[in-house]
Amino acid sequence: MNRRTLLRTTTVLGAATLAAGAAGHAGAAPAPAAAGVSGAPRPDGPLRVHVVLFDGVEELDFTAPYEVFSASGYFTDREVAVRYVTMTGARVVEAAYGTRVRVDHRWAPAEADVLVVPGGGYARPEDPGVWAEIRRGTLPRALAAAQRPGLTISALCTGVMLLSAAGLTRGRPCTTHHRARADLEQQGGVLKNARVVDDGDLVTAGGVTSGLDLALWLVRRELNAEAAIGLEEMLEYEARGTVWTAGRS
After folding, report:
1. Does pLDDT of 106 surpass 60?
2. Angle, nearest 10°, between helix axes 225-235 and 3-24?
């Protein structure tokens, strides 16, 4: 028995127990459905997730979603392909606290189903990070040009400000780290008091640790609820906060 099979067998048993308990809880409310989510079959191809890195990116902002999406493959028969990408191709990225990450893949949004944009460095405008990327302009322009049917662009923490610089949040429901909320609203974002805000092809989340909740929500939406429950059991983390979805005020 390989590691994938073993982990799915042992962890999904625990997840099934959680699901059964939840079903039997009197008055338990069903999870809200995201915009465009239905019982329709998912595509047969892999779920392709690209996590965008840049110098000054916050470590937990990018590692948490990467681990959630990578581990989701243990709980679904659909292949999940996750990669780090940069605008400048293969290179070493130095994160906010000095972690160095070798990135082997170039920016290629046409090859992705989900883009995840982390944040970092927003409180230090003079350092590498979100402000530097906004001033440079390359990543915001690329994000604006990446929009197409079938692609979900998501961001968490101050990575949402990169989407704002790209014009993607103007007039749309969204959220970000609490220290950037005023800036996001001033730039035209329609702020929602939620941990995760799902407006269909645009999904945003609050600060730092909300990357876990963003990824768990997208796993639930793009794969299935059982996969999300299995991940929570494996990671020993329960999704927290409110998920706002389109069609709900």
Report:
1. yes
2. 110
